[in-house]
Write a structure and sequence with these properties.
The chain crosses the membrane at residues 9-27. The chain is of the alpha/beta class and 191 residues long. It has three helices and 16 strands. The protein has a single domain (2-189), classed as 3 Solenoid (UDP N-Acetylglucosamine Acyltransferase, domain 1), CATH 2.160.10. The protein is globular.
Amino acid sequence: MLRQNVKKYVGYVFLAIAFPFAVPYRVTNSRGVFTTTGQLLSLLPGKVGGYLRSAFYRLTLKKCGRRLYVDYGSYFSQPSAEINDDVFISTYCIIGNAKIGNNVAVSPNSHILSGRRQHASFQKDVPILWQSGGVFEQITVGENSWIGQASVVMADIGRQNIIGAGSVVVKKTGDYEVHAGNPARLIRKLF
């Protein structure tokens, strides 16, 4: 009981510390301000940095559940992300427009993109860096899923999935499955 109360009050302290970092985004509603602040906070090491990042995202994401932990070097690129309870984002991850279920672990160097069509290259006479028109989709990661190290997720992941290290998910997965490879393919059903 005492430990829970201490954690609760420490959480409030980190929310108070994170508040000045959240104000510029809340005032401007600028994705650039959101991303820049997230990148800055991603450089703070240790548990203090992790708790500060988590508090910042509680104040800025569309939805942020309890016990989100965002480790060193990781950040969200889209404020439209929705995070449920008990989510762990390991080191050097970038999370786009994602909807992440309860009890999800994202291993180091993994990325959840905002779909497969973020970047458009439809104009032959325009340099690729100057083209616009990409489509940002919300990618869902089902509850109780684990995304292995250095994976890239561009499509929805079902409930209780295991995504093998180094996988590139380009097609929606079902529930209770293991996927691995580039592109990721079904390895086996869990149940």
